[in-house]
Amino acid sequence: MSSARSPKLTLMFSPEGPSLRELAVQALSSVEHGYDLLAPKFDRTPFRTPDAVLEAVASALARTGPFDAGLDLCCGTGAGVDVLARVCRRSVTGVDFSAGMLAVARRGERSAGPAVSWVRGDARALPFAPGAFDLVVSFGAFGHFLPDELPGLFAQVHSVLRPGGSFAFPILAPPRPTSPAFWMLLGFDAVMRVRNALWRPPFVMYYRAFRLGDVRRELEWAGFRVGLQELPEFGRRGDGSPRVRMVVAVRS
Fold it and tell me: Which residues are in the Methyltransferase domain (predicted)?
């Protein structure tokens, strides 16, 4: 849950974060190469899922676990793997298609816990045996998939989960049209669409393409029973709806 005024946005433009030039080069690359370039400074940008969200998801999963084998889908530098390590007993795997992000993840210091492995692979064609995991999580990755890719993505997750296994991820309530955040995200998506219309290879990152109603329908079509859990740490909006929820899709 980052905002235009978050401390991480300040870090992005400090010597510790990427420069405007580096971000421009990344945005004119493919998604894979762009994240290879960004990887060394990724954890100092707003693109990384905030620790508060990771902590809330870990706490929610701990109430329903423990689990045996977990997979962090599109793991990036490994923040979600740290969540899995708290709730999985046997093994944890991170998969990402960016070699640069995985290189940073492998260098991370981790306390004793389940065995951790890192795999380079495409989430749309997961290189794992059927039923290899009983928990899959993902954080902040879905904006990199076009809507027509979701059925295949969710089918892949379904295939690597054991019967009764769970696919869990947080989802934020969309900003209201009267809020600055709504227009900022709308503008960002418009810029990305223009960029992709004029420049190749495309860089897929659309913040408004992942809508809960569509996601729920696609998960159900893929064979999941879909539930929602409020993450109470983030409170409620003025209309009483949760600010942040966790989608828990259980393989039938």
Answer: 71-165
Question: Long-range contact list for 122-126, CB < 8 A, 24+ apart?
Answer: 122/97, 123/73, 123/74, 123/95, 123/97, 123/153, 123/156, 124/149, 124/152, 124/153, 124/156, 125/156, 126/95, 126/156, 126/157, 126/159, 126/160
Q: How far apart are CA 95 and CA 156, in angstroms?
A: 13
- The CA–CA distances, whole Å, from 160 to 66, 137, 187, 226, 236 equal 18, 12, 36, 17, 34
CB 137 within 8 A of CB 80: yes
Predicted confidence (pLDDT) per residue in 37-83, tens digit: 888 888 788 778 889 999 999 999 999 989 999 999 999 999 999 99
- pTM equals 0.85
CA dist list (Å): 110 to 43, 57, 105: 16, 19, 10
| DSSP secondary structure string for all residues of 104-147 | HHHHS---S-SEEEEEE--GGG--S-TT-EEEEE--S-GGGS-G
79-87 helix and 51-62 helix, angle to the nearest 10 degrees: 20
* Secondary element (H or E) of residue 79: helix 79-87
Distance CA 122, CA 98 (A): 9
100/41 Cα distance (integer angstroms)? 11
Amino acid found at 166: S
**pLDDT tens string 151-166:** 999 999 999 999 999 9
